[in-house]
Specification:
The complex is a heterodimer of chains A (about 325) and B (about 130). With about 325 residues, chain A is an alpha+beta fold. Chain A has 9 helices and 15 strands. In chain A, the strands form 4 sheets. Chain A has an 8-stranded antiparallel sheet. The chains are: A alpha+beta (about 325), B alpha+beta (about 130).
Chain lengths: ~325, ~130
């Protein structure tokens, strides 16, 4: 074989190898799943690990959601039993939820409450019928909530008072905290777990800089980049009902029992998804008075109203 | 004669190299366009139960029967929207058509969630 022929064969081999390399170029690893829990649909994406890891996450969301569910579930040592019987041998997740709730309550004593379950239900029922909750019902249920206390001795949780416990405002965040711990232990760094667009855990994305672009629905077209952090959003515009020009929602002001707030949404970024979850709800109620405290806590935040960001402590939006 | 053969070989080599180059460029263009963020399907859940898994490449209209009426979901040109809902604030309808993987349309009042799925990594979300 002549040298020239060898060169031709070399070129053809190189050509075929290139074509093979191109066609076999591996895509990103992507495992995904959908879970239902805490009253919403969760979107789970792992770019490392395995589908089994996704399935475990789906299962964990469902299981812990039942612990904090105010409706009857298969869980017998959760919130439902506590509300029904007044005492329960608490599931470890429930005990952690109360611990977190008490942390939030220390930070926002006036605007965070976990005993507003009955009042929240009454408001939602009334809004479903297009009505504002009447003052008599509102004040009665508010008083019941305010006079309700919870004590914990070992694993035994006891409720005193007629108020109904509802830990929904911190449930998703606490769940994300636990999931993050598991992902860290498994060495999974590339992920996105989106709990109904209001509680989100962002690891890295597989793109070059690892950032996820996050648009704010309540302040279009603003966005920010997220990587290795938790995002929490409390928005009344998504779930609110307009009556006589005022927007009413599922978020209740524990000071007066009202369901209409001054802002449409509050977004927060930080490391502790559970804490952020509780803070977004309580500081959306508190409004701009809470800005200084949020700055002290080192939380990045943005208050939105009428489609615009009205207060933000960091230039994280564009 | 020898020079002519060598010249022919060089031309063939040049053509082969050119083909390799063109092939790589074409691949990069195709691969680049393949990094689309568009979703390929959408999962529709009602109170947590999956009721539809819709192919976004097939135009269609589906209804979810809720306690208060019908939530109408329309797929058109690779995009999906809630086009009608009995909910009072109509936030879900106001979201319009969406197509990006990871995007969702949530009708909290009716308990209906549309979640767009894709093969690619999620690079942006709307919260």
């Amino acid at each position: 074989m002549s040298l020239s022929n060898k060169r031709i064969i070399f070129c053809l081999t190189l050509s075929l190898a290139s074509a093979g390399l191109c066609s076999c170029s591996p895509g990103i690893t992507h495992y995904s799943g959908t879970a239902y829990g805490y009253g919403t649909t969760w979107d789970i994406h792992l770019y490392q690990g395995s589908q089994k890891d996704v399935d475990e996450i789906v299962s964990y969301i469902s299981k812990t959601s039942q612990v904090l569910d105010v409706e009857k579930t298969s869980c017998v040592n959760g919130v439902y039993t506590l509300n029904e019987k007044g005492t329960v041998e608490g599931d470890p997740f429930l005990l952690e939820a109360f611990s977190l709730a008490n942390r939030v309550k220390e930070i926002a004593p006036d605007t965070f409450s976990y005993s507003l379950g009955a009042l929240t239900s009454a408001w939602l029922e009334s809004l479903d019928q297009g009505k504002v909750l009447d003052d008599a019902t509102k004040l009665t249920l508010l008083e019941e909530a305010k006079s309700t206390t919870v004590s914990i001795a070992g694993n035994t949780i006891t409720k005193a008072g007629k108020g109904q416990i509802d830990l929904g405002s911190i449930g998703k965040g606490l769940c994300l905290n636990k999931l993050k711990k598991t992902l860290d232990e498994k060495g999974i760094k590339q992920y996105l777990i989106n709990g109904g667009s209001s509680s989100i855990l962002v690891g890295e994305t597989p793109n070059s800089d690892g950032n996820l672009k996050v648009y704010l629905e309540d302040a279009k077209p603003h966005y920010f980049y997220a990587k290795n952090l938790a995002i929490s959003a409390s928005s009344v515009s998504k779930q609110g009902v307009k009556i006589d020009g005022k927007t009413y929602s599922h978020i209740i002001d524990p000071r007066n029992g009202n369901a209409n707030l001054g802002y449409d949404a509050l977004y927060m970024l930080g490391e502790d998804a559970g804490l952020l979850d509780g803070l977004t709800t309580s500081f959306l109620v508190l409004g701009e008075q809470g800005k200084e405290k949020l700055n002290q806590l080192g939380v990045k935040y943005a208050f939105c109203k009428d489609g615009k960001v009205v207060y933000a402590n960091e230039e994280f939006i564009r | 004669m020898k020079n002519s053969s060598a010249k022919r070989t060089h031309i063939i080599e040049f053509v082969v190299f050119l083909l390799i180059l063109v092939g790589i460029v074409v691949y990069l263009i195709v691969a680049g366009s393949g990094k689309k963020e568009s979703g390929v399907s959408a999962e529709v859940t009602y109170k947590g139960q999956v009721v539809y898994s819709l192919n976004l490449n097939e135009d269609q209209t589906q209804k979810v029967i809720t306690q208060e009426g019908e939530v109408v979901i329309n797929v058109k040109g690779g995009k999906i929207a809630v086009t009608s809902s009995p909910c009072p604030n109509q936030y879900c309808v106001g979201q319009g058509y969406k197509s990006k993987a990871g995007d969702s349309i949530i009708c909290a009042h009716e308990g209906v969630v549309v979640l767009i799925k894709g093969d690619e990594a999620v690079e942006e979300i709307h919260i």
